[in-house]
Amino acid sequence: MATMEQNLTELTPAGPMLMVSDVAANRLLAMMQEKQLDGYALRVFVQGGGCSGMQYGMIFDNEAREGDSEFSTGELRVVVDRISANYLTGASIDYVDDMMNSGFKIENPNATSSCGCGHSFRTEGGDDEESSAGGCGGGCSC
Questions:
Q1: What InterPro entries does this protein map onto (predicted)?
Q2: Full domain range(s) for residue 40
Q3: Mind listing the pLDDT tens digit for each residue in 29-46?
Q4: 71: which residues sit within 8 A by CB, 6+ positions away?
Q5: Distances, alpha carbon 86 to alpha carbons 45, 51, 90, 112, 124, in Å
Q6: Does 141 map to a domain?
Q7: How far apart are the first and last CA of the chain?
């Protein structure tokens, strides 16, 4: 079984599983520089919670974990754990700064629905009961 998993990993196409816009990458690099986080990477992950069932997370991390996928976009190193990769493949991260709001925005083609704030999402096969509460207030920060 282990050999089979290893072969599947070798057949996985190389390259980023998610895209980070230049604006987002520059903002993240500036934040890392302000905090003096040399040698750190951006860890993007998915965890249970929020009003739609799953929510996005991003932290600066200097520890590689078994099963992590790592890639670079310009000078920014990005790390995604194996489980989160299933939910984030094909997603994109951008930084929005306008009169209405500012912050990081994740566009995810795997999400079948999202809450109003965009921090929480559900994928096909997700629990409909949890997201039928009708809007935010079930645990996300909007």
A1: ATAP, ATAP_core_dom, FeS_cluster_insertion_CS, HesB-like_dom_sf
A2: 16-126
A3: 999 999 999 999 999 998
A4: 15, 16, 17, 77, 78
A5: 10, 20, 10, 14, 12
A6: no
A7: 44
Q: What is the CATH number of the domain that holds 104?
A: 2.60.300.12
Tell me what pLDDT residue 95 has. 94
Report helix, strand or coil for 52.
Answer: coil
The answer to whether residue 92 sits within a structural domain is yes
Q: What are phi and psi of 20, to 5 degrees?
A: -120, 120
pLDDT band at 118 (very low <50, low <70, confident <90, very high): low
How many domains is the chain built from?
Answer: 1
